[in-house]
Amino acid sequence: MTTDLELYKIFVTVAQAGSFSAGAKELFLTQPAVSQAMQKLEESVGARLFVRARRGVTLTPEGQLLFQHALSALQLLDAGEQKLRRVQTLKEGRLRLGAADTITKEFLLPYLSAFHQLYPGVQLQVTNRTSLQLTELLKQGQLDIAIVNLPIADERLIVQPILDVHDIFVAGHQFEQLLGKMLTPRELAGYPLVMLERAANSRRYVDDWFAEQGVRLAPEIELGAHELLPSFAAIGVGLACVVQEFCQKELNEGVVFPLSLVPPIPSRSIGACWVRDIPLSSAAGELMRLVHNDQS
């Protein structure tokens, strides 16, 4: 069996044109080159494909059988190439994006809106999980790209920071005595705390930093959603650990106020991750371009 696709393209063209000379002209080849190609194909498949006459050629029964399948295969390949071009130019396709709930709401939504307006033919598939869960989905091939809380240390992934963020503690008016007061990590840990659940990568980052200061955090309340943290602080049940950039509304409205921790928790980043050995899809690359253009 021949695997030379070019021979089949010549075969189909000659069959449709009705002669070697007409086929050669359409293919921008010489007639001897076409004749040699068809001889090679006949030898490869072990059957005579054309009946040659003065006025041209006609297909043998074997040739007709092969022509039907060859034409179908070439049309299928052409359709695949056209679809690939549409995907590459973002006229269609899909973007499988993973992101934590808070990152999606507080950071990604404007970029997703802009992407959808620019490329309405691309289907957006957004999966919300914790950062560590999303990295596992990436490695399983279920996502194209994930926007997660850093740090992420995994040799199989490319990690690209996007936005610096700051973890701070906030309080409601029941703790007004702390307004403007400098707190050490140990002093802060002595108050009732409200934090994200331990599965959250941002929570682990804060826990690890306090551990470096010789302090173990034992929050009374652990939540699964960042947006609930300032609300719990506002009603006075404890000091809440939030991402400053994602708590601006509550801070600006005075619902909660930031606490002064000395030394402060070092900043960290939100970043994009994808599998190292798999190039970014056109859609994922364009989303990254939109994000970087806005951040620069």
Task: Describe the model.
The chain has 296 residues and is α/β, with parallel strands linked by helices. It has three domains: 5-88, Arc Repressor Mutant, subunit A, CATH 1.10.10.10; 93-164 and 269-295, D-Maltodextrin-Binding Protein, domain 2 (3-Layer(aba) Sandwich); 167-266, Periplasmic binding protein-like II (D-Maltodextrin-Binding Protein, domain 2), CATH 3.40.190. 45% of the residues lie in helices and 22% in strands. The chain has eleven helices and 14 strands. It has helices spanning 5-17, 20-27, 31-45, 61-88, 101-118, 131-139, 185-189, 201-212, 229-234, 248-253, 282-295; strands at 50-53, 56-59, 93-99, 122-127, 145-149, 157-165, 167-171, 182-183, 193-196, 221-223, 239-243, 257-258, 260-261, 268-275. The strands form four sheets. Strands 4-3-5-14-6 form a five-stranded mixed beta sheet, sandwiched between helices. Strands 10-9-11-7-12 form a five-stranded mixed beta sheet. Helix 1 packs across helix 3, helix 1 (5-17) crosses helix 4 and helix 5 crosses helix 11 (282-295). The protein starts with a helix and ends with a helix. The mean pLDDT is 93.
